[in-house]
Specification:
Among the domains are: about 50 residues; about 90 residues; about 40 residues, no CATH class; about 110 residues; about 180 residues, Intergrase catalytic core (hpI Integrase, Chain A), CATH 1.10.443.10. The strands form six sheets. Strands 1-3-2 form a three-stranded antiparallel beta sheet. Strands 4-6-5 form a three-stranded antiparallel beta sheet. The chain has 29 helices and 18 strands. Helix 16 crosses helix 18. With about 725 residues, the chain is mainly alpha-helical. The relative contact order is 0.03.
């Protein structure tokens, strides 16, 4: 016979043994000889037949796992037959290392002898080999719960419940045997149990509704429907039957089950209980109502904190702060001095019982409370990173809108203070001087700041310089750095136009009316209304986007709109936007909503755009995608409830791009991109030209005329006419 040599990896794949184990067999051992192999070019080759004989001497060429799969018996049962056997009969096998091997003939002979013993014979009787697919005898419960669950198409917990409790309402119970706390059954017992429960159904009722259709009809998952079949719900049982391993019910039985469960829950809620979900709207995890476990103490505390109920609080009120233990003054007996443990250190206060010790104790407590739970460090110990951390806690609480939300100044501070963190984070705050400040300024000019798209403009740099000076001014007020640091930084002046390398920008000009009219067809109904309101009222973009019906006083001929918050609210300035007849006509269609709902919502704009696309589609009804079927289930971003200044500006920018593309096809020049802030300049310039600068000041809501001169351009037409006549 010609040997057929294959590589060790190929041999491992053929015989089903790990490659590393065969590689270990090639080396000699005290318990066994080495596997014969040949080396060719640095690789090992072996004969498959020789490997099989080496693995299973005596004709045992079938691994125990392969035999279990062939005879459809759990591996655990096969090992039990090899180790303990059945009534004195053991399965012929061989052990090689950690692996067990047997043969097909040995398993057939074992099953034949086991069947003879179960039928009344003994271990010495000889019978013909049983059918390979024949199940083990009824008296031999060797079918594990997991394998029985796979055969029945149910969960392992369901099989255990069939064995211990039986099927509710039918009286059927699965025959089994419990050994060492583990339940075993047999194929015949499982088949008899399924046949019995399939016959237990009311007379004249036909279960023709499969589980999947019944779950859709009840608006639940298939897993929940199976749970209803096994356990019921709220003490109500669902009539069902089996066809093989599949569950079936009827529409009448399902409707009756749902009706009885809803009646039970209605009575339960009438008794004063609270129920958050009904039978048809289960929680997202699809957990049955009766199986919900009681929440833990931690879950209750989190839930009460979210609802404003924290240890005796009232519903809807603010959650109480956790009670903090006040450090106690203690006595150091060896020195008769008073001390207190605070911020991880022992602070000595003076002689025990003296007024000086009590005064020092109260002073320490006050400093810790005022400093957020820590003692303020000495000016020479604080680094720039630690200073930024302390200042940021202050900024988060200080820069807030009247409604409690964060102010946009926080974003500006984050950008301005980023170079200090990256370049001088470990530098002592008291050593930050003019040279370091100029280095930070240069990073803004060059555009080398992390997250910055390019060089910053000169006006932006000057504002950021003021923010850095404000940081050290706050630190001086908190006694975190010496006062000389702030005085030194004040010596650096702001950048002047044309006298620095900073990028210069042109002043903001009014947007021409023809540019507004060109993009109007490409804007949504909501964005067109926002543009018209700005042109008619001169309001800021952030003021028109937060407009709500409750903020508009509609008692007189001219409506008064008072924004919930505006730019100068922290300065105690009042802001009133006057809405005339034209502005009222623009706003009136958007007031038909709840008083506290925002009038201009991107969600409505998207819905109108989708409806228009559906109305204009050319695909016949019933063909193609149905509305809503080609959308993402969990989109990264969803349309919001109101426009922000950024989203409002993005909508205008998209309109400019579409208008420019259309004009390019017609051979016309493109529309320059413009933002919503320029509409305010347009309105201010028009009012100043017609009614004077004082009227423009009132319309724009400025406290000083100098601010109005920035927004309202001077009327140079009069100077031109005068020069033409007299110049």
């Amino acid at each position: 016979m010609v040997e057929k040599l294959v590589s060790l990896r190929e041999a491992a794949r053929v015989v089903g043994v790990p490659y590393k184990r065969i590689l270990g067999w090639t080396e000699p051992s005290t318990k066994r000889p080495a596997l014969e192999c040949q080396r060719r070019g640095g690789r090992l080759f072996v004969d498959v037949e020789a490997l099989r004989q080496f693995m299973a001497p005596g004709g045992h060429d079938l691994r125990l796992a392969a035999a279990a799969a062939l005879f459809q018996v759990p591996r655990r049962t096969m090992r039990l037959w090899c180790r303990e056997g059945y009534r004195g009969v053991k399965l012929d096998h061989a052990r090689h290392g950690e692996l067990l091997f047997t043969s097909k003939a040995a398993v057939e002979a074992f099953l034949a002898r086991a069947s003879a013993i179960a039928d009344g014979g003994n271990a010495g009787d000889r019978h013909e080999p049983a059918d390979v697919g024949a199940p083990p005898p009824v008296g031999e419960y060797v079918l594990a719960v997991s394998h029985a669950a796979q055969l029945a198409g149910v969960r392992s917990d369901t099989v255990r419940r069939w064995a211990t409790e039986g099927l509710p309402g039918s009286g059927a119970r699965l025959q089994h045997e419990e050994r060492d706390g583990t339940i075993y059954t047999s194929r015949r017992a499982l088949r008899d149990f399924l046949e019995r429960i399939n016959g237990d159904k009311p007379a004249g009722e036909t279960f023709d509704l499969p589980a999947s259709e019944a779950a859709k009809r009840a608006c639940v998952s298939t897993q929940t429907f199976r749970r209803w079949c096994d356990r019921g719900c709220c003490g109500v049982e669902l009539a069902h039957g089996y066809r093989g391993t599949k569950r079936f019910t009827s529409a009448e039985a399902l409707d009756d089950f749902l009706r009885r469960v809803e009646e039970h829950r209605a009575r339960w809620m009438a008794e004063g209980n609270r129920l958050q979900h009904s039978i048809r709207t289960l929680p997202p995890r699809d957990v049955a109502w009766e199986e919900r476990q009681e929440p833990t103490d931690r879950e209750r505390e989190v839930r009460r904190a979210e609802q404003g109920l924290d240890r005796g609080g009232f519903e809807g009120g603010p959650a109480r702060e956790p009670k903090r233990r006040t450090p106690t003054m203690c006595l150091h007996k060896a020195t008769n001095r008073a001390y207190v443990w605070m911020t991880g250190k022992r602070h000595y206060l003076g002689r025990w019982g003296s007024p000086e010790a009590r005064e020092a104790y109260e002073r320490l407590l006050a400093e810790v409370r005022a400093n957020g739970g820590t003692l303020p460090p000495s000016p020479g110990e604080l680094t720039v990173m630690e200073l930024l951390e302390r200042f940021w806690h202050h900024a988060v609480e200080y820069y807030r809108r009247p409604d409690g939300g964060p102010s946009r100044e926080l974003d500006c501070l984050r950008y301005a203070l980023r170079p200090l963190k990256d370049l001088y984070g470990g530098t002592p705050a008291g050593e930050f001087g003019t040279r370091a400040f100029k280095t930070v300024r240069d990073t803004w000019i060059r555009g080398h700041v992390r997250g910055q798209r390019g060089p910053a403009a000169r006006g932006r740099i000057n504002r950021d310089m003021q923010r850095v000076k404000g940081l050290f001014k706050w630190a001086v007020a908190e006694e975190l750095v010496p006062a000389a640091v702030h005085e030194t930084l004040r010596a650096i002046p702001a950048l002047k136009r044309g006298r620095s390398d900073a990028r210069e920008t042109e002043p903001v000009q009014p947007v021409p009316q023809e540019h507004v009219a060109a993009i109007r067809p490409y804007l949504s109904r909501q964005v067109r209304a926002l543009v018209d309101l700005q042109l008619l009222t001169g309001a800021r973009p952030g003021e028109v986007t937060i407009l709500r019906p409750c903020d508009v006083e509609r008692s007189g001929d001219v409506w008064l709109y008072r924004p919930a918050f505006h730019k100068n609210a922290h300065r105690n300035h009042d802001r009133t936007v006057f809405l005339g007849p034209k502005a009222q006509a623009v706003l009136r269609p958007f007031l038909l909503r709840a008083d506290d709902a925002y009038c201009f919502a991107p969600r409505e704009a998207v819905a109108e755009r989708v409806a228009a696309m559906h109305a204009a589609r050319r695909t016949p009804p019933g063909q193609g995608n149905e509305p809503g079927t080609n959308r993402k289930g969990l989109p990264r971003r969803e349309p919001g409830g109101r426009y922000s200044v950024a989203s409002y500006g993005a909508a205008i920018a998209r309109g400019c791009a579409k208008a420019s593309a259309k004009r390019a096809e017609e051979g016309l020049p493109p529309i320059p991109r413009w933002g919503p802030h320029r509409l305010r300049h347009t309105r201010g310039t028009e009012v100043r030209a017609r009614h004077g600068i004082e009227a423009a000041q009132v319309v724009l809501g400025h406290a000083q005329l100098s601010a109005t001169e920035i927004y309202a351009e001077k009327n140079l037409e009069t100077a031109r006419r005068l020069a033409a006549l007299e110049g």
